[in-house]
Amino acid sequence: MMSDGDGFPAPSALVEHARRFREQGNTPAAPRVAATVLLLRPAAPPFSAPPSAAPPSAGRDGFEAYLIRRVAAMAFGGVYAFPGGGVDPSDSMAHVDWAGPTPAQWGTRLGLAPTAAQAVVCAAAREVFEEAGVLLAGPDADTVIGDVAGGDWEAARVALERREVGFADLLAQRGLTLRSDLLLPWSRWITPEFEPRRFDTYFFVARLPAGQRTRDVSGEADRTLWISPADACAAGELTMLPPTLVTLGQVAACRDLAGVIAAAATRDPATPVLPRLEDSGAGPPRFLLR
Fold this sequence. Notes:
This protein is an alpha+beta fold.
């Protein structure tokens, strides 16, 4: 597994894009604040037959990560990523019933004002429901809702995705509380300056709630899978950008889900990681992290 200190091979299309950006003297676009969630669950048990068979996703880590492949027509299309997206104006204006760390406490951890921190956390919870059908909420601060895959819930999810209802309103209508404590902050990445669409993305990890299952419900993905983080990093056929690959490698270094939770408590999710393209001509272009 390649360490982030080694750098990452840069796709030729990105290299050419960066060169044109530099030659034309373009002005970097302002990055949009976004949130993404790495969902984790215990590894699937081995198949009972034949004895030698094991599911591809039952890897060395004892747990699995959920990945989606963005459709080619989207920004960063054709690559595997975690469910997520940009912060919506409604996320910062939401009056949501809240459990877990307060917006002020989240702000301290993320290096944001309380209102901005609430928006990022709301966006993370909203996006993982919109894109994976997983709802990090419950009837109170100590419980999590079970299966949300029924037709009524799907209609609610579609209405949320179409912005016909706000996330806070959806939760209020169902008598649910946002469980912000189920989201663990992990890191922050800012898209390189040469990209026309840039994001300032806060990465979170979350354990898949008991009784819930991910669903391929978003039109933004053409493939989804659960896979061991270590296996995902080693699988050369899975195209990923540095933020996804580095995050999977960091999580894979944890022995189990309890280790991931313990590691999240020590992470710095406020200082951004800024991938930089090294294209000196002395060797193959690569991304370096700083």
